[in-house]
């Protein structure tokens, strides 16, 4: 049965999409069957997986409105080694359309149930908001991975997300838990980042992943080639960190979730 993880943080530009596509590629590299779901109308995770968001016949939008199944709307990215349920601007409209519909927050969960046996991991790239799209992701997921930069306001920003996750856990999805906090774009030479990193560990203990993703220009260059860094330049420091993180996710999945 597939384990489903949301990559979420309501802040923009914190590394959600980079984490999603590189974790997907890292897991695929070691033989895991992976589906990457893009829930952001910007479609960056789609493009960053080598799928052209403008020429997709079907997308996650059609799945949320129940005019297509996940299997119908998913494409395989040969270069990346994982399946992609893509998104484009059409998805921005789904938010309004869904409000009118029944089971509006459980649409993705219902749709993914049909492919549960086809994958080991489903990774959902969430938009930078706590919107109905993100809610669909959180209702569908077993766990949340939170990428974060070790900056001054990082801990404050976490409070809203943690509260939302608690509410979803209590009211909509008793399965849901924070799997871990991932420190990204990390620069150990910056004292403040070290301090915030220490605070994070003091606050959240074992919820902080051991893997740390360094700031690395190869990770930032890769999307312009339509590839995750892990595929574009596997030997880069950032890619190596994501490959180690994929291994940590496999282990945590076994121990914490008993899979
Ligand atoms: P989000 O999805 O949270 O908005 P992105 O993953 O798109 O964030 O990252 C924001 C920007 O930072 C992108 O330009 C991305 O290429 C860059 N970036 C992300 N992680 C790293 C990293 N570890 N090192 C260097 N640049 C990074
Ligand atoms: Mg993004």
Structural overview:
The protein has 259 residues and is an alpha/beta fold. It has a single domain, classed as P-loop containing nucleotide triphosphate hydrolases (Rossmann fold, 3-Layer(aba) Sandwich), CATH 3.40.50.300. 44% of the residues lie in helices and 17% in strands. The protein is built from twelve helices and eight strands. It has helices at 16-29, 44-47, 60-64, 70-73, 90-99, 107-113, 132-140, 154-171, 191-204, 217-221, 229-232, 237-255; strands spanning 3-7, 34-38, 75-77, 82-85, 121-125, 143-148, 177-186, 208-214. An eight-stranded mixed β-sheet has the order 3-4-2-5-1-6-7-8, sandwiched between helices. Helix 1 packs across helix 12 and helix 6 (107-113) runs parallel beside helix 7. Adenosine-5'-diphosphate binds at residues 12-18, 44, 128, 184-185, 213, 215-216, 219-220, 223, 238. Adenosine-5'-diphosphate is lined by residues 12-18, 44, 128, 184-185, 213, 215-216, 219-220, 223, 238.
**Strand percentage, roughly?**
15-25%
Ligand kinds: adenosine-5'-diphosphate, magnesium ion
Q: State the low-pLDDT regions, or none.
A: none
Level-1 CATH class name: Alpha Beta
State the end-to-end CA separation: 9 Å
How much is the average pLDDT? 95
CATH superfamily: P-loop containing nucleotide triphosphate hydrolases
Our count of helices gives: 12
CATH architecture: 3-Layer(aba) Sandwich
* N to C succession of SSEs: EHEHHHEEHHEHEHEHEHHH
Question: What gyration radius follows from the Cα positions, in whole Å?
Answer: 17 Å
Strand order of the largest sheet: 3-4-2-5-1-6-7-8
Assembly level: single chain
Structural class by helix and strand composition: alpha/beta
Briefly note the CATH topology name. Answer: Rossmann fold
Strand count, sense and barrel status of the largest sheet are: 8 strands, mixed
Tally of distinct domains: 1
């Amino acid at each position: 049965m597939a384990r489903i993880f949301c990559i979420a943080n309501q802040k923009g530009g914190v590394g959600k999409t980079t984490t999603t596509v590189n974790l997907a590629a890292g897991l695929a590299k070691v033989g895991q069957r992976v589906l990457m779901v893009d829930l952001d109308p910007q479609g960056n995770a789609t493009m960053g997986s080598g799928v052209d968001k403008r020429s997709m016949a079907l997308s996650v939008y059609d799945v949320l409105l129940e005019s297509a199944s996940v299997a119908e709307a998913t494409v395989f990215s040969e270069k990346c080694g994982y399946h992609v349920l893509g998104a484009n601007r059409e998805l921005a409209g789904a938010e309004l359309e869904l409000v009118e519909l029944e089971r509006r927050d459980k649409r993705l969960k219902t749709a993914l149930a049909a492919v549960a046996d086809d994958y080991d991991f489903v990774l959902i790239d969430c938009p930078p908001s706590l919107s109905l799209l993100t809610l669909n992701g959180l209702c569908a997921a077993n766990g949340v991975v939170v990428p974060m930069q070790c900056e001054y306001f990082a801990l404050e920003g976490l409070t809203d997300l943690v509260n939302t996750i608690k509410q979803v856990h209590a009211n909509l999805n008793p399965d849901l838990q924070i799997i871990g906090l991932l420190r990204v774009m990390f620069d150990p030479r910056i004292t403040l980042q070290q301090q915030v990193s220490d605070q994070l560990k003091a606050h959240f203990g074992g919820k902080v992943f051991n893997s740390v993703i360094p700031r690395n220009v190869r990770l930032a260059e890769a999307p312009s080639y339509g590839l995750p860094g892990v595929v574009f330049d596997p030997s880069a420091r950032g890619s190596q960190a994501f490959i180690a993180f994929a291994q940590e996710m496999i282990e945590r999945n076994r121990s914490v979730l008993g899979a």
